[in-house]
Amino acid sequence: MSILRTKPIDDVLAQADDAGGEDRPKLRRRLGSIDLMGFGVGIVIGTGIFTLTGIEAKNSAGPGVVISFAIGGVVAMLAAFCYAELASSVPTAGSAYTYAYATMGELAAWIIGWDLLLEFALGSAVVARGWSGYLANLFGLPTAWFGEEGSVVNLGAIAIVLILGVVATVGIRQSARVTNVLVVVKVAICVFIVVAGFFFVKAANLTPFIPPAKPAEEGEGGLAQPLSQALFGLAPSAYGIAGVLSAAAVVFFAYTGFEAVANLGEETKKPRRDMPIGLIGTLALSTLLYVGVSLVLVGMVSYTEIDEGAPIAAAFQAAGANWAAVLVSIAAVAGLTSVILVELVTLSRIGFAVSRDGLVPNGIAKIHPRWGTPYRMTAIVTIAVAALAGFLPLSALADLVSIGTLFAFVIVSVAIPVLRRTKPALNRPFRVPLSPVLPIGSALACLYLMTNLSLETWLRFGVWLVIGGIIYFGYGRRKNRLARKEQETEHRAADPDPDGFPPARGGQPANTK
């Protein structure tokens, strides 16, 4: 049984078809392009803009963090083009996992699926803790149960995950409605930040736009330094061009999640038309908002004085606009709520696709007869994320989410030229322009950003992949659907007659009863 076997495209499309039996569970098609953009913007605009902007501006890039967000947006857009071609051609749950299965083989598919589970599970847990902290600041709730410091169990994080897990279980349409409402609030507040903040911008705060490089502070070398610096023997530093690039790798976390749209291919009414609109539209809107908000932030307050905990709200408070700070906090709560919901939906769809293929037990992929959702998988991921969010301070693992996402983007980018060569007749409603140059450029750009992440992030990522390898070789390699088909084929070849009689001469069966 080869670990390089690929899943036939026809099989992928058949699984996504509305027809099927009990052994091939189906999701229901209820989403349009607006719903897809709602999900995309709902997951993208969240923790990144409300927290990472201030942290990276203060510690790595200064006002140049605006360039960092632009770089991250360009790289994400390149990957979005690749996702758009694959998602419109092969609209299915699982996105990068399924694309890898059809192009690069089973082991690569398992690695990317395992990687995506890490990305969205940690991402949703981190965001849930951030949501709880913003809620505590907004309503003066006790930090022992809703904050980070001195908290044994974060009840706020657990509560929001469980509530949104119920919404995700009841139905995709209900999830879309909740998300769309929250997205409208969030986008409106982001536009407000750009417009209102513009009147408080001071040119002096934007000079120098890229602060001169300086040696990193003590404790930022060793495993905390970027892989690129360690490989080339460069001294750890902050600011300068290197700081801008390092910040770009970290703030890429802010763009993670747009690929969640590609996981909804089996639940989209017209996926071949709506998937490209949802993916590219999400990235275009999010990049514009990110660049605008980050520019206003570093213009309102000197980068050396930015508050790392709530940078945007604190900037308005420093300008004497306390009422605006309250609005920003409300937007943060709404924004993070939509992020958690979409990530729970995405997690359940990735798990559904992996389970349906038999790489983990099939029973997990069961679809609820009334709600049309993978309710067992949704329940499992909800409980897991609630436990992570409640008991583990995961904010330091944002880098791990970034490396997981960039790795997935590399796989998707490589899949474009591979499928163009192996499946030239595949119907492609959307085609990546300048292929294979643009997909290869996308893969290389993602790899470069990965090298700007710390050595400890690479080590943690390696440990997670080793755990996944143990599960695959211990269970999935022998139990998945393709492996069972191979076993059945070999069995029929060895015993062609069900009654055990060998074929008679002349090709007629020996058994004539």
Characterization of the model:
Residues 484-513 are annotated as: Disordered. It is found in: Membrane. Residues 484-495 have a biased composition (Basic and acidic residues). 65% of the residues lie in helices and 1% in strands. By secondary structure, it is mainly α. The chain has a two-stranded antiparallel ribbon with strand order 1-2. Mean pLDDT is 79; it is low at 18-22 and 504-513. It has one domain: Amino acid/polyamine transporter I, CATH 1.20.1740.10.
Our estimate of the beta-strand percent is under 5%
CATH class categorisation: Mainly Alpha
Total domains = 1
For the terminal residues, how far apart are their CA atoms? 37 Å
Question: Which spans of ≥5 residues are poorly predicted at pLDDT below 50?
Answer: 18-22, 504-513
Radius of gyration, taken over Cα atoms and rounded to an integer in Å: 24 Å
Could you name the CATH topology? Answer: Amino acid/polyamine transporter I
The topology string of helices and strands comes to HHHHHHHHHEHEHHHHHHHHH
Count of DSSP strands: 2
In DSSP terms, counting alpha (H) and pi (I) runs of 4 or more, how many helices? 19
Biggest β-sheet: count, sense, barrel? 2 strands, antiparallel
The CATH superfamily appears as: Amino acid/polyamine transporter I
Strand order of the largest sheet: 1-2
* Structural class computed from helices and strand pairing: mainly alpha
CATH architecture: Up-down Bundle
Quaternary structure annotation: single chain
Mean pLDDT: 79
Label the overall shape: globular
Helical fraction: 55-70%
